[in-house]
Fold this protein.
Amino acid sequence: MEQTALRPKPMPGQDPGRGKPGAPARRPHAARRRARRLRAALFGLFVGTVLVLSGVGIGTVGATVIGMSKLADLQRQARAHPTPSAPPSTAAPSPSSSPAPPTATLGLEAVDAEKAGALIVGVHVPGPGYTAGLVRGDVLLAFDRTRIDSAADLARAVADTRPGTEITLTVRHRSGGYQQLTVVPGIVT
């Protein structure tokens, strides 16, 4: 393109005709760059918020983890203090000679219900609880002949059960109906 006397080409980085000698040069592309950075930061913040909030029901997971940690503590205490019905052994068992006895499980995650019972917040698929027909939201009221008032009671009852024996559960469903289910506790592997 030809340069004419009427319209001279401006030098790069200078505004033609309006520039003051001491003023910084105006950069129109900088606003677009700032907008792009702001948009990227907001999008990152949005994605982070969605990931944190959708963390597979953080409230439920938190309640489950808290409930399960209490159950695990109770199970450890039960193993540390064996029941008096077990005969005391004379020799200390070596860790390599005999494996730990199998522990029973229902494949459930439970927390204390508002009233009596243990509220099921998770059912492992496949698992004994799923096979028996337990669903999330059910409240376990009785484990065989043992009354369940809390998740700790359920943990104790399951820990005292031998894997493979049939157990009758009394359940209150979310709809309010009561049902007796038969479950066969499995082995924790």
